[in-house]
From TrEMBL:
InterPro entries: DUF6460 (IPR045594)
Keyword list, A-Z: Membrane, Transmembrane, Transmembrane helix
Protein name: DUF6460 domain-containing protein
Highest taxon, organism lineage: Bacteria
Pfam families, per database record: DUF6460 (PF20061)
Segments traversing the membrane: 44-71, 91-112
The DUF6460 domain, residue ranges: 81-113
Amino acid sequence: MIGDHDSRRRAALDHGAYPAQPHHGEPRRRSALHRFLGGSPAAVLVKLLFLSVLVGAVMAMLGLTPGLLFWRLYDLTRSLIDLGLETFHDFGRWILAGAAVVVPIWFIARLLTVSRER
């Protein structure tokens, strides 16, 4: 009987004489579905079911529904966008006010510098 400790068998496996067989303790290759889900489909289904019950219970205690949650997120997004646009509007006013002072001063300084260089 040839055991795993036999050097002839190990050499034959290294040279590809025997087909590779998974040894005990080596992980098997997982299927694409198993890799995508992050576990077996049944285990993932049980985890998702458990989490769904927990989240549903918390939402019920807070008086939230999926529709209400969606509209609250929508309103929050709209208010953040409006705030951002208002900030840009104010920023644009600052640029115009500053430019009304800075550009004429720069232009006069350039005219004076050019007249001195000649």
